[in-house]
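Suppose you are handed only two things: the residues of a chain and a line of SMILES describing coenzyme A. What would the bound structure be? This form records exactly that question and the answer produced for it, so the two can be stored side by side and reused later without any lookup.

QUESTION INPUTS
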Amino acid sequence: MPAHGVLLLPTPLKLYPPLDSRSQTFCSLYHLTGSRNQKVSKLKARFWESIRSGILKNNTAQVIEPPSTVEEEEESLPEEFVLVERTSPDGTVEQIIFSSGGDVDVYDLQALCDKVGWPRRPLSKLAAALKNSYIVATLHSISKPAGEEGNGQKKLIGMARATSDHAFNATIWDVLVDPSYQGQGLGKALIEKLIRALLQRDIGNISLFADSQVVEFYRNLGFQPDPEGIKGMFWYPKY
Ligand SMILES: CC(C)(COP(=O)(O)OP(=O)(O)OC[C@H]1O[C@@H](n2cnc3c(N)ncnc32)[C@H](O)[C@@H]1OP(=O)(O)O)[C@@H](O)C(=O)NCCC(=O)NCCS
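ANSWER OUTPUT
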């Protein structure tokens, strides 16, 4: 999404969207459980916060800390994990790795942008944009032919990045999946995981600019135009 589009914000009620059955094949049970626990811990946290700030405002009663068990702790998303593993008939094993660690080669990214038909941007600016992003989430495919030693061939097949004020807001940019990997649920998984990584850092106000042809893709993920009609506005140079 290097161009401009419609500003979409996630639906507040869907900040932790339930993973559908296809996503479950991409995520281990750990992450599903983590998502439920996050909901429970957040609700409990809000409950205790409201007690502290409201009912006990003019009261000197001692605040009792909420009971905490290991199960109720928020399970954090690892920085890198295997999203999908599959074996083709010739025995080649392919893993698709999600990472929020920002490990992107700018030439690989440019090649990926070429594949989806985006206009080229200066490499130095692309590198600066990556370097100054808050989170750069990637999907890499690692293929290892049957019986072959070593690490396998690694290629960038998807990316999305978020810029942020590190406190309240984040905006998602440059969402793309290699055309030969599209339609497999990977774009959805990439954005879901990026949202989780942002929520884990307590960034709850997440927005993006959707090209008109992908509005439904984001709507499915819980994004919506601002309910109060706030519009994204642009200033373009006139020279
Ligand atoms: C948009 C993009 C990232 C989607 O990635 P993807 O891996 O193909 O998407 P998924 O397979 O995860 O699709 C998830 C769901 O969104 C739907 N979807 C995917 N692309 C869609 C689109 N363009 N419009 C509407 N729905 C779409 C899928 O049908 C699927 O629906 P389902 O869950 O009901 O089955 C990918 O098509 C892409 O890279 N496009 C080119 C670059 C681009 O336009 N980026 C967005 C710029 S704002």
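WHAT STANDS OUT: The CA atoms of residues 174 and 214 lie 13 Å apart. The mean pLDDT is 77.
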